[in-house]
Amino acid sequence: MNHNLKTSKSIYVNASLEKVWKGLTTPSIIKDYLYGTETVTDWKPGSEIIFQGEYEGHKYRDKGVILENILHQKISYSYWSGFSGLEEKPENFSKVIYDLKRVDDNTTNFTWTQIGFPNEEKQKHNENGMEDFLKGIKKVIEGVSCEILPPKDDF
User: Fold this and answer.
1) CA dist., res. 141 & res. 106, Å (int)
2) What are phi and psi of 101, to 5 degrees?
3) CATH T-level fold of 2-148
């Protein structure tokens, strides 16, 4: 794993900071923009995070550990994917970071960052798909009904 390789992109989402946060941390919403992936975690630092499902007929179970969770601001977790082609051991985990910034009551800036890729080819592949991926997140979150949002969540 080359931890010097990094991808980072931002997008403005036409939704409140709280709504974007909920969209990034609610498994049923994540499933809508993450290609049917089931996300299993309690989002507490030190807890495991699992991304599992089926892709092109192959079952997968990617994993990591929640490193940081600052309500409505930032989440980071370690991340290992079987698709990386690397052995599941600590030095082969990358780091994923979600940063959120309130622009105004109905606009949020969301930045997705991944640090660490097996090689430059995998990094470029990730980078090339990132804009469409973020647009998918934006579309799903903007379309989510506000009724799903509880007053405040503490993880």
Assistant:
1) 12
2) -135, 130
3) Alpha-D-Glucose-1,6-Bisphosphate; Chain A, domain 4 (3.30.530)
pLDDT (0 to 100) of residue 129: 87
Which amino acid makes up residue 93?
F
Taking the C-alpha atoms of residue 78 and residue 1, their distance in angstroms, rounded to an integer, is 13
Q: In terms of DSSP H, where are the helices of 52-111?
A: none
Q: How far apart are the first and last CA of the chain?
A: 30
Q: How far apart are CA 137 and CA 103, in angstroms?
A: 18
Residue 155 has pLDDT above 50, yes or no: no
* The Cα angle at residue 89 between residues 68 and 39, in degrees rounded to 5: 50
Break the chain into its structural domains and give their ranges: 2-148
Closest CA to 2 of 103, 84, 112: 84
More confident residue, 2 or 85: 2
Q: What is the pLDDT of residues 46-74, one digit of tens each?
A: 999 999 998 888 899 999 999 999 999 99
| CB 13, CB 112: distance < 8 Å | no
pLDDT digits (tens, 9 = 90+) for 24-51: 999 999 999 888 899 999 999 999 999 9
